[in-house]
């Protein structure tokens, strides 16, 4: 598995969200979409994937390496082996910087299992580590402002991935058996705000069917599964589930929330884009003011009081001992003052 980490050249985080509606690269009429869903509902996931590879250009898989995502990777790998000359389906992985260590360990094992699969990893804009994210946005942002956290850690990186990779269609691991808002999703849907077609090949599968495929094919899986975690996201918002609970009941337990943000309407986050733009403009203006004040004060210190020609002449004829006094400069000696980006030079006019 080949990994490619993408860094955004525009660290503002706003480039992907200049508008809140992208025209889909693939146009499907209502009649065509209805027809695809009627046909795909009758097919097994393997056949849905096979048909999707043929029908949809610029097709990617989005996954956080959950159980269904792992099954998808395996099935796609086998399909590609059947037709090695076909375009491979590459992976988009959003590293929020808050995944479990077990998840990162799983990613490493998946890379070993599928060395030819390419993974595109996207991080929160301008942040490569958790400490950088927290220095910029504060500690436990998911508690103080959950919507903002979802936007920064997931929604914006996702849209950036779509823009950079020119994504037209994506394969997801969503299933109806996961409950909540996923109970009625179709096999094929169009996300008009993100501008992509979403294909959900496993909508009709149960958790047990997914788990059975994992065991039968001896696929690597997250060790947390054996500790009661049926759905794994960020460590701070994921808990084990008990018997009888929905598969995703451990996500954001106790909160009125069932999705992480990437499957919400994009326009829901418009307020955060506007707020970010305002804050960045204020920070930039403050930085300019601070720099101007610093340079001004340092230049005043460097220049000092005006020295009369008489004083200079008197200093030139002074005894050598007077030149040892701090602040008195030897004839012709240059002084350099460095203030970061600003460097000031001058020479004393001593004969």
UniProtKB/TrEMBL annotation:
Coiled-coil region(s) = none
* Protein's name in the database: phosphoadenylyl-sulfate reductase (thioredoxin)
The top EC class, named as a word, is oxidoreductase
- What EC identifiers does the entry list? 1.8.4.8
Bilayer-crossing residues are none
GO terms in the biological process aspect are: cysteine biosynthetic process; methionine biosynthetic process; sulfate assimilation, phosphoadenylyl sulfate reduction by phosphoadenylyl-sulfate reductase (thioredoxin)
Domain of life assignment: Eukaryota
Enumerate the spans annotated as Phosphoadenosine phosphosulphate reductase domain: 59-240
CDD domains from the UniProt entry: PAPS_reductase
Swiss-Prot/TrEMBL keywords = Amino-acid biosynthesis, Cysteine biosynthesis, Methionine biosynthesis, NADP, Oxidoreductase
Q: Which family does it belong to?
A: Belongs to the PAPS reductase family. CysH subfamily.
């Amino acid at each position: 598995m080949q990994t490619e980490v993408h860094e955004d050249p525009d660290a503002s985080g706003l480039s992907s969200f200049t508008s809140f509606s992208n025209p889909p690269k693939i146009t499907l009429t209502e009649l065509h979409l209805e027809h695809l869903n009627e046909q795909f509902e009758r097919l097994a996931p393997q056949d849905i994937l096979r048909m999707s590879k043929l029908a949809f250009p610029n097709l990617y898989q989005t996954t956080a390496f959950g159980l269904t995502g792992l099954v998808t990777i395996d099935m796609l790998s086998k399909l590609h082996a059947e037709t090695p000359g076909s375009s491979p389906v590459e992976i988009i992985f959003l590293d929020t910087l808050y995944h479990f260590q077990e998840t990162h360990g799983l990613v490493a094992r998946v890379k070993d299992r599928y060395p030819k699969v390419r993974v595109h990893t996207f991080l929160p804009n301008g942040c490569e580590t958790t400490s950088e994210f927290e220095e910029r946005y504060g500690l436990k942002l998911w508690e103080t402002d959950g919507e903002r956290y979802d936007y920064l850690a997931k929604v914006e990186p996702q849209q950036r991935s779509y823009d950079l990779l020119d994504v037209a269609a994506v394969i997801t691991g969503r299933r109806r058996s996961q409950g909540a808002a996923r109970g009625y999703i179709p096999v094929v849907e169009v996300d008009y705000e993100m501008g992509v077609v979403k294909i959900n090949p496993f909508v009709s599968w149960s958790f047990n069917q997914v788990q059975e495929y994992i065991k039968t094919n001896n696929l690597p899986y997250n060790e947390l599964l054996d500790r009661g975690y049926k759905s794994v996201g960020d460590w701070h918002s994921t808990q084990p589930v008990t018997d009888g609970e929905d598969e995703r009941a451990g996500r954001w337990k106790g909160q009125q929330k069932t999705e992480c943000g990437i499957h919400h309407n994009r326009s829901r986050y418009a307020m955060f884009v506007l707020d970010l733009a305002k804050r960045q403009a204020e920070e930039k203006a403050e930085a300019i003011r601070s720099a101007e004040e610093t340079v001004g004060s340092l230049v005043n210190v460097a220049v000092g009081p005006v020295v009369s020609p008489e004083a200079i002449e008197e200093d030139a004829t002074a005894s050598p001992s007077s030149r040892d006094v701090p602040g008195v400069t030897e004839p012709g000696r240059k002084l350099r003052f460095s203030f970061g980006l600003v460097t000031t030079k001058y020479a004393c006019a001593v004969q």
